[in-house]
Amino acid sequence: MTAWFDKACRKGGEILHSLTLSYASIARRWLTVTRMNTTGAEKKLTLFLLNDKFTISKLAQFAELPMIVAKGEMCFSARTDEELVIITPEFMAPNNVQQETGFRAIRVEGESSLKDTRVISALIDPLTAAGIGTVVWTTFNSVYVFLREEKIVDAVKALQHAGHTFEHKEVMAPK
């Protein structure tokens, strides 16, 4: 084994590199199988792609929640010790604040991660593997995954490849 290893290293490490990648692939598969065995069967979800585009806005820590957000039907807010963050449909986004625009949302209806930790993992793992960044928001009734609009096609492919299905449903924020 030592002679083979030395020879591989002298050849520029190509074989060693391939071997390392193979071990990494095996380890990834082992972790997936281990996760499946410890949490039960892999979670397959029915997903809905929301039609609206969303904006994520950062307001001052002690700013008042804008009235349109407080009364809006599809708005999300969180206040921390540093900021107030709100996610709204683009047409409801406040003016003159720091913002990130161009997000779309995928909703998992009827599945709350508050009770089943596999829901978040089942969504995030395939997206992370595809190099897609996300913002996840959970409620008692649903899970929402916000991602850049330009990543939607790749996200849908990754999630379908993971065994999830998409259903068409007119789900829009009120205008």
Question: Your description of this structure?
Answer:
The chain has 175 residues and is of the alpha+beta class. The protein has two domains: 1-39; 42-166, VC0802-like (2-Layer Sandwich). Helices cover 35% and strands 27% of the residues. It contains five helices and eight strands. It has helices at 2-10, 14-39, 67-71, 118-129, 152-161, and strands spanning 46-49, 54-60, 76-79, 83-89, 98-109, 135-138, 142-148, 165-166. Helix 4 crosses helix 5 (152-161). The longest helix is centred in the N-terminal third of the chain and has 26 residues, at 14-39.
Mean pLDDT, all residues: 77
User: How would you sum up the major sheet?
Assistant: 8 strands, mixed
How many helices in DSSP terms? Answer: 5
DSSP strand content: 25-35%
User: What distance separates the N and C termini?
Assistant: 69 Å
CATH topology of the largest domain: VC0802-like
CATH architecture of the largest domain: 2-Layer Sandwich
Whole-number radius of gyration?
21 Å
How many β strands by DSSP? 8
Number of domains: 2
Q: Provide the structure class.
A: alpha+beta
CATH class label of the largest domain: Alpha Beta
Helix content: 25-40%
What is the CATH superfamily classification of the largest domain? VC0802-like
